[in-house]
Design a protein that fits this description.
Strand content: 15-25%
Mean pLDDT: 94
Oligomer: single chain
Number of strands: 16
Largest sheet: 7 strands, parallel
Shape: globular
Low-confidence stretches: none
Distance between the termini: 53 Å
């Protein structure tokens, strides 16, 4: 079946979903969760095929980690769907309303987008998250995962579609596109009129290609060259904890710290501590000459390092002479995802938060908290790094648009 045919089926399914009650959608989500849990062995077995191919092909360990499913990760996917079922339904929420001077009743209410296309790279857990959040928000989902995860994605989608149909909603609301060639991506990007919005999740090259080539509106997500700035007034214990968690808690996520900036006034006290911890954790530090002066294990940073989203056990590091120098560095190399400051100075923290241009600012907290689940939104569709419509973790309300409902009593305009 062609992408346009699948998009047409999704379009028809979206009309049914838009009218579905919360009870109907929640029942489907709970069935989806149960079927995932019961089918975990088959899903993990399908995933093993993808992982073996990736290892044989020489994929980096960080990418294999993103690809790998375990029984625990499948259980977490199911739990994410259950959490979604427990969340309020945004569809029908009144954003604002009033009675006009002429007696007309005006309401702006949330409505689904309709058909959402998601293009993503080797993370099969995204398949369940994206399908669930789209269904809860009343949207049909066209899922185009990577070829590296196709066996995993196919097993997951088969389970989800069966559950949706059993719950009495159209199975066509969740569809997996062919990933064997790039043709399906091109067709999806040009399905304007059938697909309402595209959300790319992956590396910079994927997002750039979708933004530049798509005729369907795009919400940009994900590229995370995140910084931790350790201010002159930082508490060393807090700073060490924040840096280590931001970098090492999980290497392959977009909210992992990729760059460390340390104020010169605290460098003598802090850098020996943090370099020792990072290196002991297996992290390669790509440092400027001032950082390199504190350890022979530091690798000299190149110009390319400052703008790199490593997604691996690497971090760039530099000494800055002021908070404003840190802000200048972030403005030049940051991607607008998450930036963190560690400081006991309320003035410094407020200045940093006000002046840094990013979707999320962390004050004395790890960059790893930029996440829909951690924010209490439930499973997220991604982290938007743009400024139109949505910014930051995209939960259920961000998967809706609005329309105006105007109620009169035979009103005519004069």
């Amino acid at each position: 079946m062609s992408v346009l045919q699948q998009a047409g089926e999704a379009r028809a399914a979206s009309f049914e979903l838009a009218a579905a009650t919360r009870a109907e959608k929640d029942a489907a989500l709970l069935l989806m969760a149960d079927r995932l849990a019961h089918g975990a062995d088959d899903i993990v077995a399908a995933n093993a095929v993808d992982v073996d191919k990736a290892r044989t092909g020489g994929s980096p360990e960080a990418m294999i980690d993103r690809l790998t499913l375990t029984p625990e990760r499948v259980a977490a996917m199911a739990d994410g769907l259950r959490q979604l079922a427990a969340l309020p339904d945004p569809v029908g929420d009144v954003v604002r309303g009033s009675t006009l001077a002429n007696g007309l009743e005006l309401r702006q209410v949330r409505v689904p987008f309709g058909v959402v296309g998601i293009i993503y790279e080797g993370r099969p857990n995204v398949t369940a998250d994206a399908a669930g959040i789209c269904l809860k928000s009343g949207n049909a989902a066209l899922l185009r995962g990577s070829s590296s995860a196709y066996s995993s994605n196919a097993a997951i989608v088969a389970v989800l579609r069966e559950a949706v149909a059993e719950a009495g909603l159209p199975a066509e609301a969740i569809q997996l596109l062919d990933a064997s060639t790039r043709d399906s991506v091109k067709e999806l990007m040009r399905a304007r009129g059938l697909v309402d919005v595209l959300i790319p999740r992956g590396g910079a090259s994927l997002i750039k290609a979708v933004v530049e080539e798509s005729t369907v509106p795009v919400i940009e997500t994900g590229v995370g060259n995140c910084h931790v700035y350790v201010d002159a007034d930082a508490d060393l214990e807090k700073a060490l904890a924040v840096v280590m968690n931001s970098k090492t808690q999980r290497l392959s996520t977009c909210n992992t710290a990729e760059s460390l900036l340390v104020h010169a006034d605290i460098a003598d006290s802090f850098l020996p501590l943090v370099l020792e911890e990072l290196i002991a954790a297996g992290v390669t530090v790509h440092g400027d000459p001032r950082v390199a002066g504190y350890s022979t294990d530091v690798v000299p940073a190149t110009a390319a390092d400052w703008g790199t989203e490593y997604l691996s056990a690497d971090i760039s590091a530099a000494v800055v002479d002021s908070l404003d120098d840190a802000l200048d560095h972030i403005r030049r190399y940051g991607t607008g995802h998450t930036e963190a400051i560690v400081s006991e100075s309320v003035t410094a923290a407020r200045r940093f938060a006000a002046r840094v241009d990013t979707a999320a600012v962390m004050v004395n907290a790890s960059t790893r908290f930029t996440d829909g689940g951690e924010f209490g939104f439930g499973a997220e569709i991604g982290i938007s790094t743009q400024k139109l419509h949505a910014r930051g973790p995209m939960g259920l309300p961000e998967l809706t648009s609005t329309k105006y409902i105007v109620t009169g009593n035979g009103h005519t305009r004069t």
